[in-house]
Design a protein that fits this description.
Number of strands: 2
Number of domains: 1
Helix content: 55-70%
Largest sheet: 2 strands, parallel
Distance between the termini: 38 Å
Shape: globular
Bound molecules: zinc ion
Structural class: mainly alpha
Radius of gyration: 22 Å
Length: about 325
């Protein structure tokens, strides 16, 4: 069955409905933050109390509280969104050729999420030590109409600056051997789908230094509500970019990154190598000369030519990609 076939069976409203569902769901998931935060504080107090009590029972209780906190705050919401997209993908996309270990995929996804989140919390402490920010919108005495206009400009600058730094961070992951070792994990799936679009925690840390630090030095003033909105937008964007379901942005794909654009970046075809680095706006690839226009038709085949995706949890953490075993039939006759 061809890649585009399942979509032709649906009404023309199906794709907008799916997109709307993803946007709504991610907004709900992200906006539950203020309601989850007090619960997290309560959970943290229980953890500290149990740990202070000591003894086997106290420590066991503390471990249960810690696990509950990690599950509710870090894993549950992003995994909920992921589950929805995986479900949509499984309904719309044809089955790939590669047999996949789904339990391993979900475990790695959750484990990497926890590591990246913990790392982010740790690194965020260094933000106040930064010089700047260059543009500070935190305390403005402007009239409300001017303030609204300022905030709109601020959000636009923030998204553009984020993508500018992301673009160059991404190019350095491909340019420098040490960074490539970890980024290669993300490029290894041969039948890329939204569940298998992992990023290694070392890559997450490098992204933090290359994107969040310069951004923090440049701009201040995005409040928690606006940040949630941006986070929802980035979350949807990254899921859309990695789904093999035939759900793309159509003509809007020239302005915003979607799966047709990003699968070229993951492609195994040499003419696609080192193309389409942008995460949000394809315009950065146009400006810096790395743009490749998506063509109609099936998504390109993905993965690395000579390496397989990690096969075990330890492979994922150590960024070990096993070399491809050539089948005896592939060998030239003796
Ligand atoms: Zn890449
Ligand atoms: Zn990707």
């Amino acid at each position: 069955m061809s890649y585009a076939a399942p979509l032709e069976l649906k009404s023309r409203w199906f794709m907008p409905a799916v997109l709307l569902l993803i946007v709504l769901l991610s907004a709900v998931v992200t906006w539950t933050e203020p309601y989850i935060a007090p619960a997290a504080a309560h959970q943290k107090a229980l953890l500290v109390e149990s740990f202070a009590r000591g003894g086997l029972a106290g420590y066991a209780e503390a471990a249960v509280h810690a696990a509950a906190w990690v599950f509710v705050v870090i894993v549950f919401r992003p995994m909920l969104l992921l589950a929805a997209v995986v479900l949509i993908e499984s309904r719309l996309a044809s089955r790939g050729e590669e047999r996949k270990n789904l339990a391993l995929a979900w475990t790695v996804r959750a484990a990497f999420l926890i590591f990246a989140y913990a790392l982010g919390l740790l690194l965020a402490r260094s933000l106040p030590a930064l010089p700047g920010p260059l543009f500070d919108f935190t305390d403005s005495g402007s009239p409300s109409w001017l303030r609204t206009a300022q905030m709109a400009v601020l959000l636009l600058i923030t998204v553009l600056a984020t993508d500018f730094f992301q673009y160059w961070a991404h190019r350095s992951f491909h340019r420098f051997r040490f960074l490539w070792k970890f980024h290669a994990v993300h490029h290894s799936p041969r039948d890329l789908d939204v569940l298998h679009a992992f990023q290694h925690p070392v890559e997450a840390a490098a992204t933090w230094f290359l994107v969040a630090l310069p951004l923090g030095a440049l701009i201040a003033g995005v409040d928690a509500g606006q940040f949630s909105l941006l986070a929802a937008f980035f979350l949807v964007q990254s899921h859309l970019a990695h789904t093999k379901a035939p759900v793309h942005l159509g003509p809007l794909g020239g302005l915003l990154v979607d799966n047709r654009f990003h699968f070229i970046h993951h492609s195994r075809e040499p003419r696609h190598f080192d193309r389409n680095f942008a995460a949000i706006f394809p315009v950065f690839d146009r400006i810096f000369g790395t743009y490749c226009k998506p063509e109609p038709g099936p998504l390109p085949k993905t993965g690395l030519g000579d390496r397989l995706p990690p096969q075990r949890l330890s492979h994922y953490f150590l960024a070990h990609l096993p070399p491809e075993d050539r089948q005896p039939a592939d060998r030239p006759p003796a």
